[in-house]
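Much of our argument rests on the idea that a fold can be written as discrete symbols. Part of our work consisted of pairing the sequence of a single chain with a tokenised description of its backbone. No coordinates are needed to read the tokens, only the vocabulary itself. The record that follows shows the chain in one-letter code together with its fold in token form.
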Amino acid sequence: MTGIENKSFDSPDETRTPDKTTIAVVNLGGVSAARMQFESGWKWSECIKPVVATDSCQVRHVGTVQSGTLHVVHNDGSEADLGPGDVYVIEPGHDA
């Protein structure tokens, strides 16, 4: 492996397409990165919960919002509205 590794989300290693969702995953040097695109009306509890069968999302997310808005509610009661240019860390135990 060289000191730089790059891939494009336009040619992902994996594509997941649950309801109203497109997730492109690339694997780089032992880590994965994902581009998540949601259609209007997307909600984790309606589109993803039936697939994973947990009460809330149990994945930690670190990322940026490129376009659109997303309202996130955590099990601890905290809430955030994310929009273009926002950088976020969302801990496990949330709905959006």
The radius of gyration is 14 Å.
